[in-house]
Write a structure and sequence with these properties.
This protein is α/β, with parallel strands linked by helices. The protein is built from 3 helices and 3 strands, in the order E-H-E-H-E-H. It has a 3-stranded parallel beta sheet with strand order 1-2-3. The model has no long low-confidence stretch (mean pLDDT about 85).
């Protein structure tokens, strides 16, 4: 088995990706340590069931705006 990966921030580019991420992380305590940055409010909605440390939306729905959230 592969070693666990330690993450502190996850970039979400679409509602579909957010839904899949929510499926994968549902019920895990580690979500309280994660922040999510996303390209739009629509990509944020599926993340609501998770207890994430922080949720931030990019100013514009593009990669450059998304990456600025990491500064």
């Amino acid at each position: 088995a592969a070693a666990p990966i330690e993450l502190d921030t996850i970039a979400v580019h679409s509602p579909r990706a957010a839904r899949r991420l929510t499926e994968l992380l549902a019920g895990r305590q580690t979500t309280r340590q994660l922040a999510a940055i996303r390209t739009s409010a629509a990509a944020a909605a599926p993340l609501a069931p998770l207890s994430l440390r922080e949720l931030r939306v990019a100013q514009f729905p593009n990669e450059a705006s998304l990456l600025k959230l990491l500064d």
